[in-house]
Amino acid sequence: MGSLHAAIKDWIKKRPYLSEIAKLQEVIATVIDENTAPEQQIDDYDWDHIISEVKKGIPVLKVIKLDNKIIKNAADLLTGIVSALATANLPEKTVQFCQKLQAVLSGNTELASRIIEKVTGDNDVQLKNAGISEIDEGFLVFLAWSSLAETLKPLKSKLMELLEGNRWRRGYCPICGQLPAMGQLVTVAQDQGRERELICGCCQMRWQYRRIGCPYCDNQEQEALKIIEVAEEADLRIDTCDKCKSYLKIYTGEGNRQVALADWSSLHLDLIGEKNGYKRTGYQMYKP
Ligand SMILES: [Zn+2]
Ligand SMILES: [Zn+2]
């Protein structure tokens, strides 16, 4: 954990314009790190059935219903994150929002679980009569996914194992079905060049994708796929597609993944992508 905080500090030193969002991330990372809930067993799921559905292209969360223990763990983590943010040294707007949310959650013990369930189903938090109508939905969805990314770890590892590494090759997440937020070039075997992995912006699952090709529209025509190099960022670049006009941020480095691939840490590349006429198609939690 100490190393994550150090890595964030190091990243921010070179990119001070990200310091506010980094502070928020550090608070969340600390709560997750201090979380002592035991990892949930996932052996009860029918993995033969799950993997046969996944091989047809259906993400895990569309095949199974998460059991109550996983939901409860994620809900408790969400409640913990909200409480920590409610007293953190962060912009007033964020703190006030979390205080309001904290009050609503403590008055309704089932609500955090309902939020988690709703987010894994429809990726929104529109709940009837929950008293959260005036709460910033996007931010709450982001907090719920931050909890789930941690709680779903056993599910993600199991799927990676069953997919023999993490070969999935589709343009959406094999766990939750959302579109990738970023990619990374990774060395898979010596002398075979590098593969491209995609990272889900919601549950943070990683999977292998083709080296060439747009994950958003499946375009594979070389001439419609270009790269924007970013002068001051040697380890980051932007892959673009002229067919669907989308961009995908790519980390070309290998170390420091937790920070480099965190999406918030390269918000400046989103601005560059948009300035060049491309749109963000991958799910985005933050709007710069
Ligand atoms: Zn996902
Ligand atoms: Zn495309």
**How would you spell out the order of helices and strands?**
HHHHHHHHHEEEEEEHHE
Unique ligands: zinc ion
Q: Tell the overall outline.
A: globular
Mean pLDDT: 90
What is the CA-CA span between the terminal residues? 27 Å
Beta-strand residue percentage: 5-15%
Number of domain modules: 2
Strand count, sense and closure of the main sheet? 7 strands, mixed
Structural class given helices, strands, pairing? alpha/beta
Helix content: 40-55%
Which segments are poorly predicted (pLDDT under 50) over 5 or more consecutive residues?
none
What is the strand tally?
Answer: 7
Count of separate DSSP helical elements: 11
Radius of gyration: 19 Å
List keywords for this structure.
44% helix, 288 residues, 13% strand, binds zinc ion, single chain, seven-stranded mixed beta sheet
Produce a short descriptive summary.
It is built from 11 helices and 7 strands.
